[in-house]
Design a protein that fits this description.
The chain is of the alpha/beta class. The protein is built from 16 helices and 14 strands. The termini are far apart.
């Protein structure tokens, strides 16, 4: 794999000044936030790696598009620009815009999970928090059919996001094809460490599902990054353009949900794209209830205009080459210092393995939550927990879901930070790793019933 790190394929026209408060003040701010990095004030954060969702820097062309936005309540010209971009770049004929990805997940779950057929199941290559919530909220149960290797953080193999085809066929045989609402295929797989899915796997999943009358819907949030991995690592695709690869990816899907705040390079937005006209008509009825008119779906016209441009820019190879390799640069720095992480480094983030970073903490002591809080106190860098807290509780037993992966996510916003910022992040985490034995665990003091990782509060375990 190419170890060279390309320079930024852009010039910086506008800057935003940031400041760094002292360690003692950071410790107090973290305590006030209940040791939950989501509850920090962004003004108190030096380098913000909480998420890549809506945190991208928009281009001059996107800002220009914002200025010409058509804010008509119905039939905005910018809806048609966005529709054309999705049809041309992704190949889906029907488009429902939404305020962000979870709006699309909500609508898809309602139209694709039958309410009159008894227990329904959704199969997928590892859960995502909001996706699974909408699936379960609409009566389905989720079955993880990702390959086993995805649950081993230290194992460095390509396409760890692939669906295990034997698991897929076994689930169909056990549950019955008529009881499988759909297969949810994420490209890339966020909670596995941003791991990609191969084109061969997508093709095989499509063939199995078509033979059994099961629809396949993609979580397409990072589809451009997935296409980069296919071009780089899958035989037969080195000479294909990113646009060609993206079109082929979606040719194996019946539809897709998209959080445009990632590979749409926009600060807000999402959509549901479909092939089936009947499902499209059902979606139009629901989008009016939850989002807005079918021609804006909770978005301003200017946001649709910027998104139409962003979808195009996200498929440019120089941008993607820099994007992926900047993340690898950070991963290489940490790996050289012995910091444990999910291997290989994925497409949008470096996932530090909290189990191996803090082996003296049990999973019930929230090692990933603890590590995220400690990284902020030590460095001023904000990261996100992806472990037992994010996994939530089993709706039937009330016990925690206990994922094999217990990580913090160093999520790199697109076109925002430089290699020097990556150096600062690496140096701070390496220093923290040297004194990892002194870090105490956390327990809950407040826990909401749904999507608890956003607003839970914690305190240190004494003794």
């Amino acid at each position: 794999m190419d170890k060279r790190y390309p320079a930024e394929p852009f010039r910086i026209k506008t800057i935003e000044n940031v400041s760094m408060i002292g360690r003692e003040e950071r410790a107090e701010k973290m305590k006030e936030a209940g040791y939950n990095t989501f509850l920090l004030n962004s003004a108190d954060v030096y380098i913000d790696l909480l998420t890549d969702s809506g945190t991208s820097a928009m281009s001059d062309k996107q800002w220009a598009a914002l200025m010409t936005g058509d804010e008509a309540y119905a039939g905005s010209k910018d809806f048609y620009k966005l529709e054309e971009a999705v049809q041309r770049l992704y190949g889906f004929p029907y488009l429902i815009p939404t305020h962000q990805g979870r709006g699309a997940e909500n609508i898809l779950s309602q139209i694709a999970i039958p309410k009159d057929k008894g227990q329904q199941w959704v199969l997928g290559n590892m859960y995502f928090t909001t996706t699974r919530f909408h699936q379960e909220h609409n009566g389905a149960k989720f079955i993880d059919i990702i390959r086993d290797e995805a649950h081993d953080a230290a194992l460095d193999v390509p396409f760890k996001g692939n669906i295990d085809l034997d698991k897929l066929q076994s689930a169909i045989a056990e549950k019955g094809a008529e009881n499988i609402a759909y297969v949810c295929l994420a490209i890339t797989v966020n909670l596995a460490g941003g791991q990609p899915v191969s084109m061969a796997n997508m093709r095989a999943v499509s063939e199995i599902c078509k033979a059994n009358g099961i629809k396949v819907f993609y979580d397409a949030t990072r589809c451009a990054e997935n296409a980069y991995y296919i071009k780089e690592q899958e035989e037969g695709y080195a000479d294909k353009s990113i646009k060609e690869i993206v079109l082929e990816q979606f040719s194996y899907a019946d539809g897709a949900t998209m959080s445009s705040k990632k590979d749409g390079l926009a600060n807000i937005g999402g959509f549901l794209a479909l092939r089936d006209e009947h499902l499209f008509e059902e979606s139009k009825e629901l989008v009016v209830v939850y989002e807005g008119m079918p021609s804006y779906g909770g978005l301003a016209g200017r946001d649709m205009a910027a998104l139409a441009v962003g979808l195009e820019e996200a498929l440019e190879f120089p941008y993607l080459d820099h994007r992926i390799k900047q993340i690898r640069y950070l991963g290489d720095k940490l790996r050289e210092a012995g910091v444990p992480m999910i291997e290989p480094v994925g497409g949008h983030a470096v996932f530090v393995d909290a189990r191996r970073f803090l082996p003296h903490l049990t999973q019930d002591q929230c090692p990933a939550q603890t590590l995220a809080a400690s990284v902020y106190i030590e460095t001023g860098v904000r990261t996100m927990e992806r472990g037992i807290v994010s996994a939530g509780r089993n709706r039937e037993t009330g016990d925690h879901h206990r994922p094999a992966l217990e990580t913090i996510r160093l999520t790199i916003p697109r076109r925002v930070y430089t290699y020097a910022h990556m150096d600062a992040v690496a140096e701070g985490i390496i220093e923290l790793y040297k004194k990892r034995d002194t870090i105490k665990g956390l327990n809950f003091v407040y826990e909401p019933k749904q999507l608890r990782f956003f607003t839970s509060r914690f305190e240190y375990i004494e003794g």
